[in-house]
């Protein structure tokens, strides 16, 4: 019995979807494999990000409170759901001292034990570098933190507001841990758990800082942009100087070219 046109179309749909998916991401694979092309793309994106941060810094210095900053905070703080509040508090807590120092040190030591001491030192150094950048920009901009009665402040935070230190730290530190877990760890429950935890912390720390009345939206956006610029730079340096190059090492970062060279 001959299949109807509709049933043939249904059978062909998964194949077409696979072809479309390959075509959709072909440019991304080409960019990743072409180092010069990737560097040009990242350079342009980083310059664009720095331009946005500069514009936000100017606004933050001139206008301590912007209308869309206040509206965003009030909208988030309008969520009266106890588990959500506890989640926002928990996410931010580990970014305060001394917990932040302890977590960065512990994470760097764990990476050193699992992947090598150079990897651990690199993670710790990168996290320290972002802290220096954040402190210098805070001093230069000098924006005060949100305060009552404009917003509800759940926990008083010292220092200046722009850009968010929590957001920069989480983006760089947990973002790099996400990268290491994705590329260096074998497929397992623990790898999946590490990806969920580190990715979730990066995504939720921004809303957490706004909800708790510690930062404005512009502080958080600038923190994400600066954090991702530093993270991308760190990943590029890691790929160039520390990533495995032999098939006998961790497989995650070993490309086809490295496998061919190892088997030749």
Task: Describe the 3D structure.
The chain is mostly helical and 264 residues long. The chain contains eleven helices and no strands. The longest helix is centred in the N-terminal third of the chain and has 28 residues. The chain is globular, with a radius of gyration of 22 Å. The termini are far apart. The C terminus is likely disordered.
Brief account:
It is built from eleven helices and no strands. The protein is mostly helical.
- Work out the number of β strands: 0
Write down the overall geometry: globular
Structural class: mainly alpha
Uncertain runs are: 247-264
Number of helices: 11
How many whole angstroms does the radius of gyration measure?
22 Å
What composes the largest sheet? none
Beta strand %: under 5%
The helix/strand order is HHHHHHHHHHH
Approximate helicity band: over 70%
User: What is the straight-line distance between the termini?
Assistant: 52 Å
Mean pLDDT: 84
Features:
264 residues; 0% strand; disordered C terminus
Topology (elements, then pairings):
Layout lengths: L4 H20 L1 H8 L1 H28 L4 H11 L4 H12 L5 H17 L1 H25 L23 H20 L4 H23 L5 H25 L14 H8 L1
Helix pairs in contact: 3-10, 5-9, 6-7, 7-8, 7-10, 8-9, 8-10, 9-10
């Amino acid at each position: 019995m001959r299949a109807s046109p509709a049933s043939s179309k249904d059978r062909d749909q998964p194949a077409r979807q696979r072809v479309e998916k390959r075509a959709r991401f072909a440019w991304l694979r080409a960019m990743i494999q072409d180092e010069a092309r990737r560097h040009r793309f990242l350079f342009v994106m980083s310059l664009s990000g720095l331009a946005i941060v500069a514009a936000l810094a100017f606004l933050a210095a001139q206008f301590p409170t912007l209308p869309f900053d206040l509206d965003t905070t009030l909208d988030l703080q309008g969520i009266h759901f106890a588990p959500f509040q506890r989640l926002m508090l928990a996410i931010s807590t580990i970014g305060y001292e001394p917990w932040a120092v302890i977590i960065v040190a512990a994470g760097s030591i764990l990476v050193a034990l699992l992947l090598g001491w150079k990897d651990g030192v690199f993670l710790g150094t990168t996290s320290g570098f972002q802290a220096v950048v954040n402190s210098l920009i805070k001093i230069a901009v000098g924006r005060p933190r949100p305060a009552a009665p404009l917003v509800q402040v759940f926990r008083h935070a010292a220092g200046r507001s722009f850009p968010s230190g929590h957001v920069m730290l989480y983006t760089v530190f947990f973002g790099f841990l996400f990268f290491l877990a994705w590329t260096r760890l074998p497929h397992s429950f623990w790898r999946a758990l590490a990806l969920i935890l580190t990715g979730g912390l990066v995504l939720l720390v921004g809303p957490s800082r706004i909800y708790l009345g510690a930062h404005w939206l512009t502080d958080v956006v600038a923190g994400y942009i600066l954090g991702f610029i530093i993270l991308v730079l760190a990943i590029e340096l890691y790929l160039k100087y520390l990533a495995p190059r032999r098939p006998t090492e961790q497989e995650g970062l070993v490309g086809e070219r490295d496998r061919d060279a190892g088997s030749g």
